[in-house]
Amino acid sequence: MVKFSLEDSDPYYLTLSEHPKRFDADSPVTNVFFDDTNGQVFTVRSGGVTGVTVNSMDEAKCTSFRMEDKGPIISIKLSLDQKVLAIQRNNEGQSATVEFVNFKDLSPTNVEYSHTCKWKNSKILGFVWPKANEIAFITDHGIELLQVLPEKKQLKTLKSVSFSGAWFSWCAQSNIVVLAGNNGALLQPFYFNNSTIIKLQNGAWFSWCARSNIVVMAGNNGALLQPFYFNNSTIIKLQKLELETSRPVVERDVCMVLVADVTWCAIFRHALTTIAAPGPTEIWLMPLSGSGVNYTHILKTGLMGRFALSVVDDLVAVHHQSSQTSQLFDIMEECKVENNTVIHLPLVPAHSIRPAVVDEQPCPMYSGNWVMFQPDYVIDARRGCLWRLRLTPAALAHNIEKDDIGKIVSCLLRRRGGADVVHHLLAQLVASAQIYLLQLTHAFDQINSVYRQWAEAELARSTAGGAGGGVGVCARGGELRLHNTRCARECCNRTQTIPTLCR
């Protein structure tokens, strides 16, 4: 089979940010916490007076301060406007209480207060900030949405929803929380909107997606997952996700992701062919109600073991620890829908993340100390490093099968920075047109298809009297949003001479 490789490309399509954000490493006297909503790492040093350092890729969100040691901390987060600090402690015999400290210019004031959950004998599984002045307590009895009034040193209950949960998952970008119930065989989503909690259509653990403000709670030992959506001070209960009771899910196998402007509940399904010889793992992307998508995407990894998941430029990156490789999946590619499911294979062969260097020494990749957070954060708590994953579009066209060129062009048209890569790819195909003439035709078919969709959308907008400009063409094969249609226009403009060269 003839291969194609873009000139000056290499195989590393994923890379860590060049300069990691450094923080004090995890140790017996230092605990490390990460808030994926604000992208902040908290390092808490105990002993007499607690010293706290806050680090972020955004320098405007970095600070350090000291506070009285009142017991071990299990969760610590700043509000979205960085004006209130919320702290959950692990004190034996203490009621379900969260402490609050007012901040000014990223420094604590002497104003402190606390709030106790409304349900007696409840356990706080975690808390999230849907808005700058609103906080939601996720408990094993349900969800309590509260308004924080820092000037009055108090909280006001806006809405509460009862639900027996075991864990939850939260997506801040869409304001949806999913609770797990029924031993992990049912997932119930809720949506936060207008100071209300709305049930979209059942939790003990939770998972949170900061990019969509959605949290998923688990109940009934992971046989039931209930999503909730937080929006405009309201909690909306979404349609529940029911799984096989014989195959409930656990907290580590569920996360919320935002891909192509749609919020998905990502579930790792570990096949059990036999106890002695388990089958490969699949990843199910189940859409939450209201997204306009009615089918599940199944990502076939062909691998077994420990996995983690990231979203980079609307590509799903699946990281496999034992092979130290990552796979990319493009759920926006054209695929046939059968029985409300779409099957996807890796876009390109699995490859490792580009090796990183820390303190002038090679950094162990895919370390057991790595923790992945949505959408693209990588943390090594032992080394004290925070990275973000980045996509290198040119690497997608490195050493690929000749017949895959059209598929890669289609993918690049949906990526940021894809126009330059597509232009270079086309120029290289033209230079060897005697070998790649058919593939060149397929590449232009992809560009023309996207350009036509954009032109039709612009024409419809003009006919309706709407403003021109803006890009947002829906080309999901019905439902997935096709990003970056400007890329296709740019490629058309920059390659006007190529058809002449091909004659």
From TrEMBL:
<dbReference type="GO" id="GO:0035658">
    <property type="term" value="C:Mon1-Ccz1 complex"/>
</dbReference>
<dbReference type="Pfam" id="PF21029">
    <property type="entry name" value="RMC1_N"/>
</dbReference>
<feature type="domain" description="Regulator of MON1-CCZ1 complex N-terminal">
    <location>
        <begin position="32"/>
        <end position="155"/>
    </location>
</feature>
<dbReference type="GO" id="GO:0031902">
    <property type="term" value="C:late endosome membrane"/>
</dbReference>
<dbReference type="InterPro" id="IPR040371">
    <property type="entry name" value="RMC1"/>
</dbReference>
<protein>
    <submittedName>
        <fullName>Uncharacterized protein C18orf8</fullName>
    </submittedName>
</protein>
<dbReference type="InterPro" id="IPR036322">
    <property type="entry name" value="WD40_repeat_dom_sf"/>
</dbReference>
<dbReference type="GO" id="GO:0010506">
    <property type="term" value="P:regulation of autophagy"/>
</dbReference>
<dbReference type="InterPro" id="IPR049040">
    <property type="entry name" value="RMC1_N"/>
</dbReference>
<dbReference type="GO" id="GO:0005765">
    <property type="term" value="C:lysosomal membrane"/>
</dbReference>
